[in-house]
Amino acid sequence: MLQVVPAYLSDTEAAGILALLCEQIGEQIEHGLAARHYALTGDRRALAGTVL
Predict the structure, then answer these.
(1) Residue 38 contacts residue 47 (beta carbons within 8 Å)
(2) Strand, helix or coil at 3?
(3) Distance (Å, rounded) from C-alpha 21 to C-alpha 49?
């Protein structure tokens, strides 16, 4: 997700861009944002309830 949406963008800005990618790959936007948050922080709790 960080390859598509750089870390310096806010979650709001990222959601707009990730929405297009998630639609193409058939994933929920919430899961895309969770994966991005995990990539930024390393906090595995971000992935709770997410199947990637």
Answers:
(1) yes
(2) coil
(3) 20
* Domain that residue 29 falls in: 11-46
CA distances from 10 to 6, 7, 17 (A): 9, 8, 11
Instruction: Report if residue 33 sits inside a domain.
Output: yes
Q: Which pTM was predicted?
A: 0.78
Quote the CA–CA distance of 51 and 49 in Å, as a whole number: 7
| CB-CB contact of 14 with 48 (8 Å) | no
Position 6 in a domain: no
Residue 15 falls inside a structural domain: yes
Instruction: Write out residues in the chain with pLDDT < 50, as ranges.
Output: none
